[in-house]
Amino acid sequence: MPDPYLPELTTFALNDDETTVVTEALKASKPWDWKPACPVKKASLKSAKDKILAFHLQRHNHTCCYCKTGLKAAGPFMTDREHVLPKSKAQFKAFSYAIWNLGVACKRCNMQFKGAADGFVVSKVDQVAFQTSENYRFIHPNYDRWGDHLTRFDAGMDEKKLVVFFNPTDSEKGQYTKEFFKLEQLSLNSFDEGQGLKTTDQLSRAAALVLQLAKLFGQPVP
Which top-level group of life is the source organism from (predicted)? Predict the structure, then answer.
């Protein structure tokens, strides 16, 4: 199937030095955490990881691949390079640097909920299936278009904020993703809905209309 994001996975490439040091890292017991003693190799490995981060930030327009929280200029304290098949599991170690198994997530989704879990993987042994959407119960960062399963409405002005998640097509993957990452915890409404329907403030009116739409679709509202 066509890649749901740009740039396409097939366009990602490391240079010769980066490829060499990644190959060496994959021989270690913990490939992603391996630290070469040689300064040149250390620099090449950092360069490879930086490329991976930049590539996946571009693919997801600087948002978390699971909840769509903005990561623009978020820095390392809010942003993680995400391994879909957890790198800590022995059977997935070989995919520690596979671009299709990587993404970019917020710390909340990656550390608080995803971690080393693999219950979302249908087959944990079929390596061909690893590179297919059907093998994952949640929205895969590289094989599923997030917007085909969920919609996040996010608006705000000063201290007023509205965040609502929709599953308008009753997508199974969308529902699993909402529950797995507890996306309803991110829902927020600091607008006065009643006031929003009456005010001339366009943003407040928009917030009220979005909440009405959510209710129409039977979606939880904050």
Answer: Bacteria
**Domain identity same for 178 and 94:** no
61-78 pLDDT, tens digit per residue, is: 999 999 999 999 888 789
Q: Which pair of tokens denotes residue 70?
A: 């903005």
Cα dihedral 140, 145, 149, 151 sign = positive
Cα distance from N-terminal residue to C-terminal residue, the chain: 36
Residue 47 tokens, joined? 């360069």
Contact (Cβ atoms closer than 8 angstroms) between residue 144 and residue 137: no
| 84 part of a folded domain | yes
Q: Which residues pair with 152 in a beta bridge?
A: 165
| Residue 222 CB-half CA count within 13 A | 22
Give the whole-angstrom CA distance, residue 60 versus residue 54.
10
Whose CA is closest to 187, among 216, 158, 150?
150
Rounded to two decimals, what is the model's pTM?
A: 0.87
Q: Is 185 helix (H, G, I), strand (E, B) or coil?
A: helix
Structural domain contains residue 97: yes
